[in-house]
Amino acid sequence: MSQPLPQTVKGDSASERLQALGLKLPVLAGTTYLVPHRTVGSTIHLSGQLPFKDGELLGQGVVGRDVELETAQELARHAALNALAAAVQAVGDLERVRIVQMLVFVASTPDFGEQSKVANAASELLIEVLGENGRHARTAIGVAGLPLNTPVEIQVVCTAV
């Protein structure tokens, strides 16, 4: 049985909590080769999200060599924010988003071993904004490299409530 969530961010709705964090959902740019989300039945699969802000990749490098843990955590939060934006595109309203599963890919040195600490930052953001609907199953994976030499990529599976 999961433990109750501490209510660290004040607000009655997910939108109010997002605003209380000083954040707003970005507008996601489309590409020729993929869509931001695909719905199959009641499940919504989101394309992998990188830590872009205003069209600019916020970091490059390998965690444990070029990128410190704290920087990787901040990049993971930005990638999770982008995932929330894709989820809202899919369901139409932040209040309807429920995160089911998150995969966090961390480009890291073989001896880094703290991929879960990078992923925790993304998980925390989702729970801060969505409350219980942000709680999810999760996998954190260390990889040799990611697109555009980014340190973090996040993939999410969600549903509408």
Automatic annotation (TrEMBL):
CDD domains in UniProt: YjgF_YER057c_UK114_like_1
Organism name: Streptomyces jeddahensis
Endoribonuclease L-PSP/chorismate mutase-like domain boundaries: 17-150
SUPFAM superfamilies: YjgF-like
Descriptive protein name: Endoribonuclease L-PSP
